[in-house]
Design a protein that fits this description.
With 244 residues, this protein is an alpha+beta fold. Helix content is 56%, strand content 16%.
Amino acid sequence: MSESVLWLDDQAITAEHLLGLLRRQGQMPSLVRELVLDQALAAVVISAAEEDELLQAFRSERQLESEEGFVGFLQASNLNEALLRQMVTRPERVVRYREERWGPRANSLYLQHKERYDLVTYRRLQCGNTDVMQEVFFRLKDREESWDSLAQQISGGDPSATSLVGPVPVGNLEEAVLTALRQQGPGRICRPIQLGEQVVVTELEAFQPSEFNDELRTRILREEFENWLQEECSKMLSKVTYRA
């Protein structure tokens, strides 16, 4: 007989019932993600003083300085203090884990994928009507109208509409758009590109090499962490078995 792990009033909820609910609600990926994180972050050391400081910052931010307010929050959130401490220290544990695991290789990771972080500034107009975008392309190509004038027309007359995008990382662009910009070079209108239900017309302004600064370093560590986490979760999910 399955052991009860939760009670709703006088109704006992078994572990088997709870697992079934998680599966029906599609929550297994979230559960596995939490399990993977708990296992990975268990070895990350945070001192008692740091933990107290993070908890106090959380209480101040939520205006829970009074003990009565704090206890009320825990009850309303179905938490106890131990669980809350795990929650408020999680972000710091993640930062330290990322730094320990990938920090020493951040510069080499940047050099390995440098092109991904280079920046691009370009013009872009899009809508779902192929005929309209063909007309837009020829008007731009023949210099009959400006980019921003057409942007306002496509947006329905919004005076703040603009065609200028960037500078943004080249990794943010669709592969077809990036390829067209590189092939055409600055100042040449790219032919309309079909992207799903949208048709896009673009023109390159400039490519700008990225700089390995603190902001980019943090981004690289975040990306490595998320890629690792997704891979670990996929592995774990593929190995999940359920009792018949």
